[in-house]
Amino acid sequence: xxxxxxxxxKIPGVANGLGKGRDSATIAIYSVKGxxxxxxxxxxxxxxxxxxxxxxxxxDLDAAGGAGFLFGIDAVDAKPAETVFSRDRSPExxxxxxxxxxxxxxxxxxxxxxxxxxxxxxGKRRRLAKLAAALGKQYERIILDCPPVLNEVSAQVMxxxxxxxxxxxxxxxxxxxxxxxxxxxxxxxxxHPPILPVLSMLDMRxxxxxxxxxxxxxxxxxxxxxxxxxxxxxxxxxxxxxPSSPAAQWFEGLWxxxxxxxxxx
Length: 265
Ligand SMILES: Nc1ncnc2c1ncn2[C@@H]1O[C@H](COP(=O)(O)OP(=O)(O)O)[C@@H](O)[C@H]1O
Ligand SMILES: [Mg+2]
What we know:
Layout: E1 25-29, H1 38-51, E2 56-60, H2 66-69, H3 83-86, E3 96-97, E4 103-106, H4 115-122, H5 127-135, E5 141-145, H6 152-160, E6 163-168, H7 174-185, E7 195-202, H8 207-215, E8 221-223, H9 226-234, H10 238-241, H11 246-263
Parallel strand pairs: 1-5, 1-6, 2-4, 2-5, 6-7, 7-8
Antiparallel strand pairs: 3-4
Helix pairs in contact: 1-11, 5-6
């Protein structure tokens, strides 16, 4: 019998499907810049993924530990996060429940600030990819909240990810900034996963933001909203405390579009 084909929302630059027989996907939220909305997007997309029924792991790779903070989870120093990489500590020993159905967190702490050097010293270029693949047996969606770096950590992220989401604040240079990220991550010459730009913190009252939107009409958007900032104060994903807010709908819409692209064949 012929397979039913669904019509998918258009997301530029994303390949169709993960490949036959695969039901787990790793999605990296990445940028070389800080303060662009990576952690906010990671936490909210992970929550949406879990709510849509996927067993989901939010993996915080940034020593600042923001993803854990957004769920009210502090780092536990007794089990340093970097030992997952350097001493083969099983990630399961560090994984914590977020308190939300289907959603666990692999937290970060100060110990992964030097992850770059440790990975280089280890000399295993696919360490992160292998860990993610092993975790993919338990988790259908793994969301990586990445640090704003361009080094061995980001190179390993590119090897581990099925899709890379890059939040970009609107500016006349957004498109150029995105091209730069694509060039940087492909500098290794070995190719890279599909990269999806997202115009983050868009405020249509501002002329420059409107112009940036006009220049990149195909890019998905997450508008600027105070309810998103409130999420950091309440330490909750927006959908959990303001489910009917437009912001909750944007995160959900973006997640659905990403997920359909990932799973469709
Ligand atoms: N859509 C948004 N609307 C309003 N504020 C936002 C939005 N996205 C992120 N922020 C705020 O911007 C700041 C930086 O976001 P964050 O996710 O920590 O960025 P990054 O992880 O890239 O450093 C935080 O204070 C966050 O609350
Ligand atoms: Mg962050």
